[in-house]
Write a structure and sequence with these properties.
The protein is an alpha+beta fold. It contains 2 helices and 10 strands. The strands form 5 sheets. It has a two-stranded antiparallel ribbon with strand order 1-2. It has a two-stranded antiparallel sheet with strand order 3-4.
């Protein structure tokens, strides 16, 4: 295993213990969800992948953002929606005509989009007004019941 290209110590998602690490490659994969005629539910087909080389110019989130923008540019006539686990969040995943769903950390602070340039001198704002933490937004949000189709059945 010592001669495997770009092998490093990284989080092992398949491990049964908490905070498990293992030596190996870390791949960032992007897929497209499609309905296949011979399957009873949609499946995700991998279409792009990148190898994270460890500490360097690109983080795994930046690699995911690059692939997300490639898919958004390829399907410019559609809205592209991405989904990732809790490790994949940040400004690298933001883009025009696309949206992204992830689980935010409990202490994350959410901001409105940056306001337009004012035309005055100085650095323009990079964040909008502070909206609060996910807990603050959940308390003040308007909730409604939704029916979703998952795993072959309807659920509220």
């Amino acid at each position: 295993m010592l001669k495997v290209f770009a092998a490093l110590w990284t989080h092992d998602g398949a491990a049964t213990t908490k905070n498990a690490v293992a030596r190996g490659n870390r791949w960032v994969v992007a897929g497209i969800v499609v309905d296949l005629p011979f399957c009873s539910r949609p499946v995700c087909l991998p279409v792009l992948f990148r190898l994270w080389l460890g500490k360097g110019p690109a983080t795994p989130v930046a690699l995911a953002g690059q692939m997300f923008q490639v898919l958004a540019a390829q399907f410019c006539d559609r809205e592209v929606h991405g989904v990732g686990d809790a490790a994949y969040h940040g400004p690298d995943l933001l883009g025009a005509a696309s949206s992204y769903t992830t689980r935010l950390p409990r202490n994350a602070v959410v901001y409105a989009p940056a306001p337009p340039r004012t035309g005055r001198r100085g650095r323009p704002r990079v964040k909008g007004e502070r909206l609060g933490t996910p807990g603050d937004l959940a308390v003040s949000g308007a909730w409604r019941t939704a029916v979703v189709h998952r795993y072959g059945r309807q659920e509220k």
